[in-house]
Amino acid sequence: MKENPSAAIDRRSYEPAYAQLVNILRRQIATGVFRPGDRLPSESQLCQRYQVSPMTVRRVINILVEQGVVIAEQGRGTFVKPLELGTAAFHLDDLQRLFRDEAYTTVKLLEARITSASERTARKLDIEVGQRTVFIRRLISQGETPVLYHREHLVYDPTRPIIEAEMEVTALRGLFNGGAKSTIKRGDLTIDVTVLTKEEAQLLQSTIAVAAFRVEHIFYDFDDRPVSWGWFISPGDRLRFTTTVGIRD
Amino acid sequence: MKENPSAAIDRRSYEPAYAQLVNILRRQIATGVFRPGDRLPSESQLCQRYQVSPMTVRRVINILVEQGVVIAEQGRGTFVKPLELGTAAFHLDDLQRLFRDEAYTTVKLLEARITSASERTARKLDIEVGQRTVFIRRLISQGETPVLYHREHLVYDPTRPIIEAEMEVTALRGLFNGGAKSTIKRGDLTIDVTVLTKEEAQLLQSTIAVAAFRVEHIFYDFDDRPVSWGWFISPGDRLRFTTTVGIRD
DNA sequence: AAGTGGTCTAGACCACTAT
DNA sequence: TAGTGGTCTAGACCACTTT
What would the mean pLDDT of A171-196 be, rounded to a whole number? Predict the structure, then answer.
Protein backbone atom coordinates (compact mmCIF):
# COMPACT_ATOMS: atom_id res chain seq x y z
CA MET A 1 0.00 0.00 0.00
CA LYS A 2 1.26 3.46 -0.94
CA GLU A 3 1.50 6.14 1.73
CA ASN A 4 -0.56 9.26 1.71
CA PRO A 5 1.92 11.95 0.61
CA SER A 6 0.26 14.51 2.86
CA ALA A 7 1.09 12.31 5.84
CA ALA A 8 4.84 12.78 5.65
CA ILE A 9 7.32 14.88 7.57
CA ASP A 10 8.65 17.99 5.88
CA ARG A 11 12.24 18.42 6.98
CA ARG A 12 12.40 21.94 5.60
CA SER A 13 9.46 23.08 7.72
CA TYR A 14 10.02 25.26 10.75
CA GLU A 15 7.71 22.93 12.65
CA PRO A 16 9.96 20.31 14.24
CA ALA A 17 9.64 16.71 13.14
CA TYR A 18 8.24 15.50 16.46
CA ALA A 19 5.46 18.11 16.39
CA GLN A 20 4.58 17.21 12.82
CA LEU A 21 4.34 13.54 13.70
CA VAL A 22 2.18 14.32 16.74
CA ASN A 23 -0.22 16.19 14.48
CA ILE A 24 -0.21 13.46 11.84
CA LEU A 25 -1.15 10.80 14.37
CA ARG A 26 -3.71 13.04 16.08
CA ARG A 27 -5.35 13.72 12.75
CA GLN A 28 -5.41 10.04 11.90
CA ILE A 29 -7.09 9.32 15.21
CA ALA A 30 -9.51 12.22 14.82
CA THR A 31 -10.53 11.13 11.33
CA GLY A 32 -11.08 7.56 12.42
CA VAL A 33 -8.07 5.93 10.76
CA PHE A 34 -7.38 4.63 14.24
CA ARG A 35 -10.40 4.13 16.48
CA PRO A 36 -10.57 3.86 20.27
CA GLY A 37 -9.08 0.54 21.27
CA ASP A 38 -7.04 0.19 18.08
CA ARG A 39 -3.33 -0.43 18.32
CA LEU A 40 -1.04 2.15 16.76
CA PRO A 41 1.84 0.95 14.55
CA SER A 42 4.78 -0.11 16.70
CA GLU A 43 7.48 2.42 17.38
CA SER A 44 9.95 0.75 15.04
CA GLN A 45 7.32 0.74 12.28
CA LEU A 46 6.74 4.46 12.84
CA CYS A 47 10.49 5.02 12.64
CA GLN A 48 10.65 3.38 9.23
CA ARG A 49 7.45 4.88 7.86
CA TYR A 50 8.27 8.47 8.80
CA GLN A 51 12.05 8.23 8.62
CA VAL A 52 12.78 9.44 12.12
CA SER A 53 14.91 8.04 14.90
CA PRO A 54 13.52 5.92 17.75
CA MET A 55 14.10 8.74 20.22
CA THR A 56 11.90 11.06 18.21
CA VAL A 57 9.08 8.53 17.96
CA ARG A 58 9.41 7.92 21.68
CA ARG A 59 8.95 11.61 22.32
CA VAL A 60 5.88 11.70 20.09
CA ILE A 61 4.26 8.80 21.92
CA ASN A 62 5.02 10.45 25.25
CA ILE A 63 3.27 13.60 24.15
CA LEU A 64 0.21 11.71 22.95
CA VAL A 65 0.08 9.87 26.27
CA GLU A 66 0.26 13.14 28.19
CA GLN A 67 -2.47 14.58 26.00
CA GLY A 68 -4.63 11.63 27.00
CA VAL A 69 -5.08 10.53 23.41
CA VAL A 70 -3.40 7.15 23.65
CA ILE A 71 -2.26 4.75 26.33
CA ALA A 72 1.06 2.91 26.02
CA GLU A 73 1.41 -0.54 27.53
CA GLN A 74 4.85 -2.00 27.82
CA GLY A 75 5.26 -5.21 25.88
CA ARG A 76 1.79 -4.93 24.28
CA GLY A 77 1.62 -1.78 22.25
CA THR A 78 0.15 1.71 22.14
CA PHE A 79 -3.62 1.98 21.99
CA VAL A 80 -6.08 4.75 21.21
CA LYS A 81 -7.82 5.77 24.41
CA PRO A 82 -11.62 5.96 24.57
CA LEU A 83 -13.29 9.16 25.69
CA GLU A 84 -13.02 9.68 29.42
CA LEU A 85 -14.95 12.40 31.20
CA GLY A 86 -12.75 12.22 34.25
CA THR A 87 -9.85 13.74 32.34
CA ALA A 88 -11.74 16.97 31.75
CA ALA A 89 -10.21 19.99 33.43
CA PHE A 90 -11.49 23.52 33.73
CA HIS A 91 -8.84 26.20 33.57
CA LEU A 92 -8.90 29.41 35.52
CA ASP A 93 -7.38 31.24 32.59
CA ASP A 94 -10.92 32.28 31.78
CA LEU A 95 -10.47 34.27 34.94
CA GLN A 96 -7.02 35.35 33.91
CA ARG A 97 -8.38 36.92 30.75
CA LEU A 98 -10.20 39.33 33.01
CA PHE A 99 -6.94 40.80 34.12
CA ARG A 100 -5.20 40.77 30.78
CA ASP A 101 -7.12 43.70 29.37
CA GLU A 102 -5.76 46.30 31.71
CA ALA A 103 -7.70 49.01 29.97
CA TYR A 104 -11.10 47.53 30.69
CA THR A 105 -10.39 45.89 34.02
CA THR A 106 -10.27 47.95 37.18
CA VAL A 107 -9.50 46.83 40.71
CA LYS A 108 -11.08 48.98 43.39
CA LEU A 109 -9.90 48.77 46.98
CA LEU A 110 -13.03 48.87 49.12
CA GLU A 111 -11.48 48.42 52.54
CA ALA A 112 -8.15 47.62 54.17
CA ARG A 113 -7.80 47.57 57.91
CA ILE A 114 -6.01 45.80 60.71
CA THR A 115 -8.19 43.54 62.79
CA SER A 116 -7.80 40.50 65.02
CA ALA A 117 -8.33 36.94 63.87
CA SER A 118 -11.66 35.30 64.46
CA GLU A 119 -11.83 31.65 65.38
CA ARG A 120 -12.37 30.70 61.75
CA THR A 121 -9.67 32.96 60.36
CA ALA A 122 -7.20 31.74 62.95
CA ARG A 123 -7.85 28.15 61.98
CA LYS A 124 -7.38 28.83 58.28
CA LEU A 125 -4.20 30.84 58.78
CA ASP A 126 -2.87 28.54 61.50
CA ILE A 127 -2.46 31.36 64.02
CA GLU A 128 -3.83 32.20 67.46
CA VAL A 129 -7.32 33.62 67.86
CA GLY A 130 -7.07 37.36 68.34
CA GLN A 131 -3.73 37.67 66.57
CA ARG A 132 -3.48 40.67 64.29
CA THR A 133 -4.50 40.25 60.69
CA VAL A 134 -5.13 42.55 57.75
CA PHE A 135 -8.55 42.46 56.18
CA ILE A 136 -8.93 43.55 52.58
CA ARG A 137 -11.95 43.85 50.34
CA ARG A 138 -11.66 44.49 46.63
CA LEU A 139 -14.08 44.82 43.74
CA ILE A 140 -12.92 43.85 40.26
CA SER A 141 -14.89 45.30 37.39
CA GLN A 142 -14.78 44.94 33.67
CA GLY A 143 -15.81 48.21 32.13
CA GLU A 144 -18.82 49.27 34.18
CA THR A 145 -19.77 45.75 35.26
CA PRO A 146 -18.47 44.38 38.56
CA VAL A 147 -17.39 40.79 38.04
CA LEU A 148 -15.51 39.68 41.13
CA TYR A 149 -15.74 40.48 44.80
CA HIS A 150 -12.66 39.58 46.76
CA ARG A 151 -12.26 39.22 50.51
CA GLU A 152 -8.87 38.40 51.99
CA HIS A 153 -7.31 37.97 55.43
CA LEU A 154 -3.54 38.39 55.67
CA VAL A 155 -1.25 37.40 58.51
CA TYR A 156 0.17 40.59 59.97
CA ASP A 157 3.90 40.15 60.36
CA PRO A 158 5.88 43.37 60.87
CA THR A 159 9.12 41.62 59.96
CA ARG A 160 7.74 40.86 56.54
CA PRO A 161 7.00 43.85 54.36
CA ILE A 162 4.49 42.10 52.14
CA ILE A 163 1.49 43.83 53.59
CA GLU A 164 2.07 47.15 51.97
CA ALA A 165 2.66 45.44 48.66
CA GLU A 166 -0.32 43.16 49.03
CA MET A 167 -2.70 46.02 49.54
CA GLU A 168 -1.68 47.42 46.21
CA VAL A 169 -4.54 46.98 43.84
CA THR A 170 -2.08 45.90 41.19
CA ALA A 171 -0.97 42.94 43.28
CA LEU A 172 -4.00 40.99 42.22
CA ARG A 173 -3.22 41.46 38.59
CA GLY A 174 0.27 40.14 39.24
CA LEU A 175 -1.12 37.08 40.94
CA PHE A 176 -3.07 36.14 37.87
CA ASN A 177 -0.54 37.08 35.26
CA GLY A 178 2.61 35.72 36.83
CA GLY A 179 4.37 38.69 38.36
CA ALA A 180 3.41 37.34 41.77
CA LYS A 181 5.22 38.12 44.95
CA SER A 182 8.16 35.81 45.22
CA THR A 183 7.27 35.34 48.87
CA ILE A 184 4.40 33.07 47.84
CA LYS A 185 5.30 29.48 47.11
CA ARG A 186 1.95 27.89 46.46
CA GLY A 187 -1.78 28.24 46.85
CA ASP A 188 -4.63 25.83 47.55
CA LEU A 189 -7.85 26.62 45.72
CA THR A 190 -11.37 25.34 46.18
CA ILE A 191 -14.26 26.04 43.87
CA ASP A 192 -17.82 25.70 45.06
CA VAL A 193 -21.14 27.45 44.65
CA THR A 194 -23.24 29.72 46.81
CA VAL A 195 -26.01 32.23 46.47
CA LEU A 196 -25.28 35.92 46.79
CA THR A 197 -25.85 37.55 50.15
CA LYS A 198 -27.46 40.94 50.32
CA GLU A 199 -24.11 42.69 50.69
CA GLU A 200 -22.57 40.78 47.80
CA ALA A 201 -25.52 41.36 45.53
CA GLN A 202 -25.40 45.05 46.25
CA LEU A 203 -21.71 45.38 45.49
CA LEU A 204 -21.88 43.24 42.39
CA GLN A 205 -24.96 45.07 41.14
CA SER A 206 -26.82 41.80 40.99
CA THR A 207 -29.84 40.29 42.69
CA ILE A 208 -29.95 38.62 46.04
CA ALA A 209 -30.06 34.79 46.04
CA VAL A 210 -28.51 34.55 42.60
CA ALA A 211 -26.21 31.55 42.11
CA ALA A 212 -22.51 32.38 42.17
CA PHE A 213 -19.07 30.82 41.95
CA ARG A 214 -16.94 30.98 45.05
CA VAL A 215 -13.19 30.45 44.71
CA GLU A 216 -11.56 30.09 48.10
CA HIS A 217 -7.81 30.38 48.39
CA ILE A 218 -5.04 29.94 50.91
CA PHE A 219 -1.56 31.09 49.93
CA TYR A 220 1.59 29.76 51.57
CA ASP A 221 5.08 31.21 51.83
CA PHE A 222 8.29 29.26 51.28
CA ASP A 223 8.21 28.01 54.84
CA ASP A 224 4.79 26.50 54.14
CA ARG A 225 3.12 28.91 56.52
CA PRO A 226 -0.25 30.30 55.42
CA VAL A 227 -0.08 34.03 54.72
CA SER A 228 -3.40 34.72 53.07
CA TRP A 229 -6.89 33.30 53.23
CA GLY A 230 -9.83 34.61 51.29
CA TRP A 231 -12.24 34.08 48.44
CA PHE A 232 -13.52 35.48 45.21
CA ILE A 233 -17.22 35.59 44.45
CA SER A 234 -18.66 35.97 40.99
CA PRO A 235 -22.28 35.82 39.87
CA GLY A 236 -22.84 32.81 37.65
CA ASP A 237 -24.03 34.87 34.72
CA ARG A 238 -20.68 36.67 34.42
CA LEU A 239 -18.28 33.78 34.59
CA ARG A 240 -18.20 30.44 32.80
CA PHE A 241 -15.73 27.66 32.30
CA THR A 242 -15.50 25.48 29.21
CA THR A 243 -13.37 22.57 28.11
CA THR A 244 -13.18 19.74 25.60
CA VAL A 245 -12.58 16.05 26.20
CA GLY A 246 -11.54 13.48 23.63
CA ILE A 247 -9.80 14.36 20.42
CA ARG A 248 -9.94 17.99 19.45
CA ASP A 249 -8.33 18.61 16.09
CA MET B 1 31.69 23.63 47.21
CA LYS B 2 30.84 20.00 47.89
CA GLU B 3 27.55 18.57 46.67
CA ASN B 4 24.81 17.40 48.96
CA PRO B 5 25.09 13.60 48.78
CA SER B 6 21.31 13.23 49.10
CA ALA B 7 20.93 15.21 45.89
CA ALA B 8 22.43 12.59 43.62
CA ILE B 9 20.98 10.06 41.22
CA ASP B 10 20.84 6.46 42.35
CA ARG B 11 21.44 4.31 39.29
CA ARG B 12 20.34 1.16 41.13
CA SER B 13 16.94 2.64 41.96
CA TYR B 14 13.86 1.49 40.09
CA GLU B 15 12.94 5.14 39.69
CA PRO B 16 14.44 6.23 36.36
CA ALA B 17 17.17 8.83 36.33
CA TYR B 18 15.04 11.49 34.65
CA ALA B 19 12.31 11.17 37.29
CA GLN B 20 14.83 11.38 40.08
CA LEU B 21 16.31 14.54 38.62
CA VAL B 22 12.86 16.08 38.20
CA ASN B 23 12.20 15.48 41.87
CA ILE B 24 15.60 16.79 42.92
CA LEU B 25 15.07 20.06 41.08
CA ARG B 26 11.47 20.37 42.24
CA ARG B 27 12.56 19.92 45.82
CA GLN B 28 15.30 22.50 45.43
CA ILE B 29 12.74 24.95 44.08
CA ALA B 30 10.22 24.10 46.78
CA THR B 31 12.76 24.56 49.55
CA GLY B 32 13.90 27.88 48.19
CA VAL B 33 17.33 26.88 46.86
CA PHE B 34 16.07 28.40 43.63
CA ARG B 35 13.53 31.19 43.97
CA PRO B 36 11.06 32.54 41.43
CA GLY B 37 13.01 34.44 38.81
CA ASP B 38 16.26 32.60 39.53
CA ARG B 39 18.11 30.92 36.70
CA LEU B 40 18.66 27.19 36.96
CA PRO B 41 22.11 25.77 36.21
CA SER B 42 22.61 25.41 32.48
CA GLU B 43 21.84 22.08 30.89
CA SER B 44 25.51 21.21 30.39
CA GLN B 45 26.18 22.03 34.04
CA LEU B 46 23.35 19.72 35.09
CA CYS B 47 24.81 17.00 32.86
CA GLN B 48 28.13 17.21 34.64
CA ARG B 49 26.76 17.61 38.12
CA TYR B 50 24.36 14.68 37.96
CA GLN B 51 26.30 12.53 35.47
CA VAL B 52 23.54 12.16 32.91
CA SER B 53 23.46 12.71 29.18
CA PRO B 54 22.19 15.94 27.58
CA MET B 55 19.12 14.15 26.26
CA THR B 56 18.11 13.15 29.77
CA VAL B 57 18.54 16.66 31.13
CA ARG B 58 16.54 17.96 28.18
CA ARG B 59 13.73 15.63 29.06
CA VAL B 60 13.81 16.76 32.68
CA ILE B 61 13.58 20.43 31.70
CA ASN B 62 10.70 19.66 29.35
CA ILE B 63 8.79 18.00 32.17
CA LEU B 64 9.36 20.94 34.52
CA VAL B 65 8.17 23.31 31.80
CA GLU B 66 5.02 21.27 31.27
CA GLN B 67 4.42 21.23 35.00
CA GLY B 68 4.55 25.00 34.94
CA VAL B 69 7.40 25.11 37.43
CA VAL B 70 10.00 26.72 35.19
CA ILE B 71 10.14 28.59 31.91
CA ALA B 72 12.91 27.91 29.39
CA GLU B 73 14.11 30.73 27.15
CA GLN B 74 16.31 29.85 24.25
CA GLY B 75 19.71 31.49 24.43
CA ARG B 76 19.07 32.89 27.92
CA GLY B 77 18.48 30.09 30.33
CA THR B 78 15.83 28.29 32.34
CA PHE B 79 14.09 30.31 35.06
CA VAL B 80 11.87 29.47 38.00
CA LYS B 81 8.35 30.62 37.25
CA PRO B 82 6.47 32.78 39.75
CA LEU B 83 3.07 31.68 41.02
CA GLU B 84 0.37 32.18 38.43
CA LEU B 85 -3.30 31.74 39.29
CA GLY B 86 -4.26 31.45 35.66
CA THR B 87 -2.61 28.06 35.42
CA ALA B 88 -4.95 26.61 38.03
CA ALA B 89 -7.26 23.92 36.76
CA PHE B 90 -9.84 21.90 38.54
CA HIS B 91 -10.33 18.35 37.38
CA LEU B 92 -13.51 16.43 36.92
CA ASP B 93 -11.96 13.35 38.42
CA ASP B 94 -13.57 14.45 41.63
CA LEU B 95 -16.68 13.54 39.74
CA GLN B 96 -15.11 10.42 38.38
CA ARG B 97 -14.50 9.10 41.86
CA LEU B 98 -18.24 8.96 42.24
CA PHE B 99 -18.43 6.23 39.67
CA ARG B 100 -15.39 4.28 40.77
CA ASP B 101 -17.02 2.79 43.86
CA GLU B 102 -19.54 0.67 42.06
CA ALA B 103 -20.80 -0.71 45.33
CA TYR B 104 -21.92 2.63 46.71
CA THR B 105 -22.89 4.37 43.51
CA THR B 106 -26.17 3.61 41.83
CA VAL B 107 -27.54 4.97 38.58
CA LYS B 108 -31.33 5.00 38.41
CA LEU B 109 -33.11 5.45 35.11
CA LEU B 110 -36.01 7.80 35.80
CA GLU B 111 -37.35 8.16 32.28
CA ALA B 112 -36.48 7.26 28.69
CA ARG B 113 -38.84 8.11 25.88
CA ILE B 114 -38.90 9.17 22.27
CA THR B 115 -39.95 12.75 21.69
CA SER B 116 -39.47 15.43 19.07
CA ALA B 117 -36.85 18.14 19.22
CA SER B 118 -37.76 21.51 20.64
CA GLU B 119 -36.29 24.63 19.10
CA ARG B 120 -33.54 24.69 21.67
CA THR B 121 -32.72 21.00 21.44
CA ALA B 122 -32.68 21.18 17.66
CA ARG B 123 -30.20 24.03 17.77
CA LYS B 124 -27.89 22.24 20.17
CA LEU B 125 -27.98 18.97 18.24
CA ASP B 126 -27.88 20.66 14.83
CA ILE B 127 -31.07 18.97 13.61
CA GLU B 128 -34.50 20.09 12.41
CA VAL B 129 -37.16 21.16 14.90
CA GLY B 130 -39.56 18.30 15.44
CA GLN B 131 -37.08 15.63 14.49
CA ARG B 132 -37.18 12.59 16.70
CA THR B 133 -34.95 12.51 19.75
CA VAL B 134 -34.59 10.33 22.80
CA PHE B 135 -34.98 11.98 26.16
CA ILE B 136 -33.37 10.37 29.18
CA ARG B 137 -33.39 11.31 32.84
CA ARG B 138 -31.12 9.65 35.36
CA LEU B 139 -30.44 10.02 39.05
CA ILE B 140 -27.01 9.13 40.38
CA SER B 141 -26.79 8.40 44.08
CA GLN B 142 -24.03 7.57 46.46
CA GLY B 143 -25.38 5.28 49.09
CA GLU B 144 -28.72 6.80 50.02
CA THR B 145 -27.81 10.34 48.96
CA PRO B 146 -28.64 11.50 45.44
CA VAL B 147 -25.70 13.46 44.09
CA LEU B 148 -26.29 14.05 40.39
CA TYR B 149 -29.33 14.59 38.27
CA HIS B 150 -28.75 14.00 34.58
CA ARG B 151 -30.90 15.07 31.65
CA GLU B 152 -29.92 14.09 28.12
CA HIS B 153 -31.28 14.45 24.61
CA LEU B 154 -30.03 11.97 22.01
CA VAL B 155 -30.36 12.16 18.25
CA TYR B 156 -32.60 9.29 17.16
CA ASP B 157 -30.96 7.54 14.25
CA PRO B 158 -32.36 4.07 13.46
CA THR B 159 -29.27 3.25 11.42
CA ARG B 160 -27.15 3.68 14.51
CA PRO B 161 -27.83 1.25 17.33
CA ILE B 162 -26.37 3.42 20.04
CA ILE B 163 -29.68 4.30 21.58
CA GLU B 164 -30.30 0.98 23.24
CA ALA B 165 -26.80 0.99 24.57
CA GLU B 166 -26.97 4.60 25.70
CA MET B 167 -30.05 3.99 27.78
CA GLU B 168 -28.18 1.40 29.74
CA VAL B 169 -27.57 2.76 33.16
CA THR B 170 -24.04 1.43 33.00
CA ALA B 171 -23.24 3.59 30.00
CA LEU B 172 -22.70 6.59 32.22
CA ARG B 173 -20.19 4.76 34.32
CA GLY B 174 -18.31 3.89 31.15
CA LEU B 175 -18.26 7.50 30.08
CA PHE B 176 -16.49 8.52 33.24
CA ASN B 177 -14.16 5.59 33.57
CA GLY B 178 -13.03 5.20 30.00
CA GLY B 179 -15.06 2.34 28.59
CA ALA B 180 -17.00 4.88 26.55
CA LYS B 181 -18.83 4.07 23.38
CA SER B 182 -16.34 4.15 20.59
CA THR B 183 -18.91 6.05 18.56
CA ILE B 184 -18.12 9.18 20.53
CA LYS B 185 -15.11 11.19 19.43
CA ARG B 186 -15.20 14.19 21.70
CA GLY B 187 -17.33 16.25 24.06
CA ASP B 188 -17.63 19.94 24.82
CA LEU B 189 -18.28 20.75 28.45
CA THR B 190 -19.40 23.93 30.16
CA ILE B 191 -19.64 24.42 33.89
CA ASP B 192 -21.76 27.13 35.44
CA VAL B 193 -23.98 27.65 38.44
CA THR B 194 -27.72 27.75 39.00
CA VAL B 195 -30.19 27.38 41.79
CA LEU B 196 -32.24 24.23 42.11
CA THR B 197 -35.73 24.24 40.64
CA LYS B 198 -38.56 22.66 42.55
CA GLU B 199 -38.35 19.46 40.51
CA GLU B 200 -34.60 19.21 40.90
CA ALA B 201 -34.70 19.88 44.62
CA GLN B 202 -37.32 17.18 45.07
CA LEU B 203 -35.34 14.57 43.16
CA LEU B 204 -32.07 15.44 44.81
CA GLN B 205 -33.68 15.53 48.26
CA SER B 206 -32.47 19.08 48.71
CA THR B 207 -34.06 22.46 49.18
CA ILE B 208 -35.40 24.71 46.49
CA ALA B 209 -33.21 27.67 45.53
CA VAL B 210 -30.03 26.00 46.78
CA ALA B 211 -26.92 26.80 44.71
CA ALA B 212 -25.80 24.02 42.41
CA PHE B 213 -23.21 23.12 39.80
CA ARG B 214 -24.45 22.59 36.28
CA VAL B 215 -22.23 20.73 33.84
CA GLU B 216 -23.59 20.95 30.31
CA HIS B 217 -22.29 18.59 27.65
CA ILE B 218 -22.50 17.99 23.94
CA PHE B 219 -20.98 14.79 22.58
CA TYR B 220 -19.92 14.39 18.96
CA ASP B 221 -19.40 11.30 16.81
CA PHE B 222 -16.47 10.73 14.49
CA ASP B 223 -18.18 12.72 11.76
CA ASP B 224 -18.33 15.69 14.14
CA ARG B 225 -22.09 15.50 14.32
CA PRO B 226 -23.65 16.12 17.73
CA VAL B 227 -25.30 13.00 19.12
CA SER B 228 -26.06 13.98 22.69
CA TRP B 229 -26.87 17.16 24.54
CA GLY B 230 -27.65 17.38 28.21
CA TRP B 231 -26.46 18.41 31.63
CA PHE B 232 -25.67 17.22 35.11
CA ILE B 233 -26.87 19.08 38.15
CA SER B 234 -25.40 18.69 41.61
CA PRO B 235 -26.17 20.63 44.78
CA GLY B 236 -23.15 22.63 45.85
CA ASP B 237 -22.92 20.97 49.22
CA ARG B 238 -22.28 17.55 47.65
CA LEU B 239 -19.61 18.39 45.14
CA ARG B 240 -16.42 20.39 45.40
CA PHE B 241 -13.35 20.92 43.26
CA THR B 242 -9.90 21.58 44.63
CA THR B 243 -6.51 22.26 43.13
CA THR B 244 -3.06 23.58 43.96
CA VAL B 245 -1.02 26.19 42.12
CA GLY B 246 2.67 26.79 42.44
CA ILE B 247 5.09 24.20 43.71
CA ARG B 248 3.54 21.30 45.52
CA ASP B 249 6.17 18.95 46.87
C1' DA C 1 12.07 -16.39 21.10
C1' DA C 2 10.25 -12.41 19.11
C1' DG C 3 8.17 -8.14 19.48
C1' DT C 4 6.76 -4.30 22.26
C1' DG C 5 7.38 -0.06 24.95
C1' DG C 6 10.91 2.47 28.39
C1' DT C 7 15.31 4.40 29.41
C1' DC C 8 19.66 6.24 28.27
C1' DT C 9 24.00 7.52 25.87
C1' DA C 10 27.36 10.63 23.50
C1' DG C 11 27.53 13.06 20.53
C1' DA C 12 25.84 16.48 16.30
C1' DC C 13 23.77 20.63 14.46
C1' DC C 14 20.84 24.67 14.83
C1' DA C 15 18.71 29.15 16.66
C1' DC C 16 18.89 32.46 19.83
C1' DT C 17 20.97 35.81 23.40
C1' DA C 18 24.46 38.14 25.54
C1' DT C 19 28.96 40.44 25.50
C1' DT D 1 32.20 34.67 20.01
C1' DA D 2 30.75 32.03 23.69
C1' DG D 3 27.01 30.19 26.07
C1' DT D 4 22.27 28.93 26.16
C1' DG D 5 18.23 26.10 25.06
C1' DG D 6 15.98 23.01 21.05
C1' DT D 7 16.09 19.23 17.94
C1' DC D 8 17.69 14.94 16.32
C1' DT D 9 20.45 10.72 15.43
C1' DA D 10 21.65 5.69 15.68
C1' DG D 11 22.28 2.93 18.24
C1' DA D 12 22.36 0.21 23.22
C1' DC D 13 20.17 -2.22 27.02
C1' DC D 14 16.23 -3.43 29.81
C1' DA D 15 11.38 -5.04 31.25
C1' DC D 16 7.43 -6.76 29.78
C1' DT D 17 3.88 -9.51 26.95
C1' DT D 18 2.69 -12.76 23.64
C1' DT D 19 3.30 -16.91 21.04
Answer: 80
